[in-house]
Task: inverse folding
């Protein structure tokens, strides 16, 4: 089955992709903290940084409308803050506006960071920052097996469609699909464990 | 309920990150001391499971949608400490790949969803461990998470407390009810089809 990978642009080869991941990550963290510490900045700062984001997306060949589309995820929160401020006594919309600008700036940079760095490079940076081993194991598990589980869901949906084309999918079948997904994952975990043992995985060494 | 970056100011994010880091540290210590290597792939695949079900969203009314959290479910199935790490890792990758929640607000999101859902939810479930009480605790922890979320927004001077509380809780009542029903149905199904999951060691 076909999937679109969630970091599909990270395997391109451009000058931005070639920068060391540590440098990109530290730059991202410093910039994000800066944006959050100084909440209301001059509008020239926003113009400059959005132009910068646009330039980076141009050089790294990550399409700009791909970034714009991802803004949808923060919109509900912006509306929440705007509406709540509107109905209070102060009636001040500027907080919501500044929050939206800050937030979208950070979202743009985060997407650029993830889409220009391969996932195993990000994990290796985390390893250098002394993030505990078990967290890294879990993160790499998610990255590898997410597509397997999506495949399982698709197969289940296909078979439900084949057997009962009319009442598909209702609330109860959704709970059943998710429950069966857990059971299948549970059974898969045993097989993965034996495969890992065969390939020389030892939990004691990996952990400490 | 996944707070994006820029919605919390620096003091709130520092405090919440500190609290979540302490919880993660305790859980890792706990898991490393009673380590069973067979548990690692199980935790990994459960983490993938949580990551996947957090992507399934139900439309509520025009445009808005709620999605499952699964933290109480995992805590009941695997135990609070395992469940907490599993849900936290899933939240970390959600913030990286789908921008559901930010990077500096990760602590707040872990606190709202994973700490409340796994530790508090497991405590509520433990009082009288049946599937009904798991469903009840799923509903309760969703509401407590929404409450904490509004308090965090208020602490960082983003919005007034009263209006945010009303908006957040009315929105999350629907999500909480769906979460409770689905948790109940899934637990029933799992214990019926594969009873040995019930005998799993809960850490």
Result:
């Amino acid at each position: 089955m076909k999937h679109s990978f969630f970091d599909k642009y990270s395997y391109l080869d451009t000058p931005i992709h070639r920068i060391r991941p540590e440098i990109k990550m530290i730059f991202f963290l410093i910039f994000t903290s800066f944006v959050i510490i100084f909440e209301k900045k001059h509008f020239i700062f926003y113009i400059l940084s959005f132009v910068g984001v646009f330039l980076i997306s141009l050089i790294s060949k990550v399409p700009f409308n791909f970034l714009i589309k991802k803004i949808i995820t923060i919109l509900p929160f912006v509306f929440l803050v705007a509406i709540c401020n509107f109905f209070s006594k102060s009636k001040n919309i500027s907080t919501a506006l500044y929050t939206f600008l800050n937030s979208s700036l950070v979202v743009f940079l985060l997407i650029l960071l993830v889409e220009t760095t391969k996932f195993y490079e990000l994990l290796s940076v985390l390893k250098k920052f002394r993030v505990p081993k078990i967290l890294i194991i879990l993160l790499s598990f998610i990255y590898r097996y997410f597509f397997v589980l999506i495949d399982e869901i698709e197969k289940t949906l296909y078979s439900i469609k084949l057997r009962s084309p009319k009442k598909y999918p209702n609330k109860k079948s959704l709970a059943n699909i998710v429950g069966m997904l857990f059971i299948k994952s549970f059974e898969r975990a045993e097989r993965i464990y034996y495969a890992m043992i065969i390939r020389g995985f030892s939990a004691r060494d990996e952990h400490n | 309920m996944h707070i994006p970056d820029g919605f919390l100011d620096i003091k709130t994010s520092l405090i919440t990150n500190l609290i979540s880091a302490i919880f993660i540290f305790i859980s890792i210590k706990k898991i490393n001391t009673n380590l069973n290597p067979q548990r690692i792939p199980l935790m990994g695949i459960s983490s993938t499971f949580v990551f996947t079900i957090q992507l399934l969203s139900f439309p509520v009314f025009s445009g808005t949608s709620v999605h499952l959290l699964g933290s109480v479910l995992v805590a009941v199935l695997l135990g609070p400490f395992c469940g907490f790490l599993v849900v936290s890792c899933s939240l970390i990758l959600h913030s990286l790949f789908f921008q559901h929640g930010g990077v500096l607000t990760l602590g707040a999101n872990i606190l709202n969803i994973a700490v409340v859902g796994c530790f508090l939810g497991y405590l509520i479930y433990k009082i009288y461990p049946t599937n009904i009480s798991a469903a009840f605790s799923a509903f309760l922890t969703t509401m407590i998470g929404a409450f904490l979320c509004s308090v965090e927004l208020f602490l960082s001077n983003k919005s007034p407390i009263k209006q945010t509380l009303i908006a957040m809780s009315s929105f999350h009542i629907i999500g909480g009810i769906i979460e409770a029903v689905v948790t109940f149905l899934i637990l029933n199904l799992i214990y019926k089809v594969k009873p040995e999951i019930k005998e799993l060691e809960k850490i």
In short: Chain A touches chain B through 76 residues (CB under 8 Å). DSSP finds ten helices and no strands in chain A. The CA atoms of residues 110 and 119 of chain A lie 13 Å apart.
